[in-house]
Amino acid sequence: MFKTQHAVASLDPVWDRITKEAQDAVDSQPLMGGLIHACILHHKSLQKALSYRISAKLCSNEMSMTILREIVDAAYEADPGIVEASRADLMAVYERDPACHRLLQPILYFKGYQAVQAYRIGHWLWQQGDWDLAYFFQMRISEIFGVDIHPAAVIGKGIMIDHAHSIVIGETAVVGDNVSMLHSVTLGGTGKEEEDRHPKIGDGVLIGAGAKVLGNIKVGHCSRIAAGSVVLSEVPPCKTVAGIPARIVGEAGCDQPSVSMDQRFPNGSD
Predict the structure, then answer these.
(1) What is the C-alpha to C-alpha distance for residues 9 and 17, in angstroms, rounded to an integer?
(2) Count H helices, E strands: the chain?
(3) Is residue 9 very low, low, confident or very high in pLDDT (cuts 50, 70, 90)?
(4) I want to staple 235 with a disulfide (CB 3.0 to 4.6 A). Which of 68, 102, 152, 219 is the partner?
(5) Which fold does the domain 12-146 belong to in CATH?
(6) What is the CATH T-level fold of the domain 153-269, as seen in this structure?
(7) Is 101 exposed, middle or buried (CB count within 10 Å of its CB: 0-12, 13-18, 19+)?
């Protein structure tokens, strides 16, 4: 069994690179050895490392790390798509965040990446009808990472949340693939409605720091929302919106705003 796992791991270039980066980090700073061995080098795959990391971060006197690892492992076993999304998220952070120089960093240090991976387990639990466990994950993610994502929210893959402080994503929100957002973003409601009441964010959208998108509105694919904006009405695809309330100020400026991370206004906008 060990040989089979080792063979699979050796065919995984992403995991091979992560373990190489981990060993280099230990060699250069031995004081980090305990953390890096526990989180990376003691494991045979990315999903096992993520299972350990998520469980170690979320465990408490009320829920042991052992129980949480069993839950996370069960989710990964039942739905390989969660692991696929975690890989896409990892590459998104590496490619879009100029502060990320190694694949190792998001797994060990970046709370945006860690919070999204923990949310994915809570979302799986919600889909299974394990609502109390899902709420527990939401609570601990909020307490530990400062990120509050309802487990019923639907979030695609290739997600990058930079800095990630004070992110709020409501129950009926939908976030597409390859979306980037910065800190203090809210995808919220506009009142006490109990039905479908949160935004629907298209693929490739870039949401600037402090932006609030409120209500059951659509934000079209490859659009940009400027920092500090309050969006209360639908945003067409491939546009830039800014202001309170937000209005269209120009085109998105490129095919993939969430990848370019360019938050400057188009030339000639007022």
Answers:
(1) 11
(2) 10, 15
(3) very low
(4) 219
(5) serine acetyltransferase, domain 1 (1.10.3130)
(6) UDP N-Acetylglucosamine Acyltransferase; domain 1 (2.160.10)
(7) exposed
Question: Please, are residues 193 and 214 in contact by the beta-carbon 8 Å criterion?
Answer: no
Residue 123 tokens, joined = 């979302």
Of 109-118, 174-183, 185-194, 258-267, least confident by mean pLDDT is 258-267
0.90 surpassed by pTM: yes
Residues listed for the chain: 270
Dmax over Cα atoms in the chain, in whole Å?
Answer: 64
The domain locations on the chain are 12-146, 153-269
Q: Are 242 and 264 within 8 A, CB to CB? A: no
CA distance 3 to 8: 9
- Alpha-carbon distance of 248 to 252, in angstroms, equals 10
